[in-house]
Fold:
Amino acid sequence: MSSQRAYHHGDLRRAVLAAALDVIGTDGPAALSLRDLARRAGVSHAAPAHHFKDRAGLLTAIAAEGFDLLADALARAADLREAGVRYVRFAMDHPAHFQVMFQPGLHRPDDPALLAARTRAGDRLREAVADAVDTDEPRLAGIAAWSLAHGFATLLLTHNLTDPVGDRAPEDVFRSLTGLLFNH
Structure:
């Protein structure tokens, strides 16, 4: 009864999103079910559908929120290298978002909120690239910058860099990596 009362006085949408992020972070997106999330939130199995309609709707909301958080992180970067550092830090701080954002088969890629958030994050990256790189091919420069940060973040999250990174902060390793590649 108290959990149902919390639903009426709380924010079910946020509670379901938080529970979904926990499940994804622990077991991956495949383990996600609206029925299980409703049970975790202490509400009827149909209650989450009022906010998300279905599983794809929930994952779309997670992806949109992730791109918004990423755009905010990138907007605070002073230069392209720091944009990469912030990208890596975002992935480390929000691994469940990161898992969902880049798997279009999980969500609705044509959702207006998702498109707006993805565009905002992409614009921040393109601005950082444009400020740092003088090239006739800014799109390719953007792909290169994104690939480096995204690849490094993905390798970190999948524990493929545990030994090479060791006890060093991932941000410091990323700065060193970009220095090796771009300061010569």
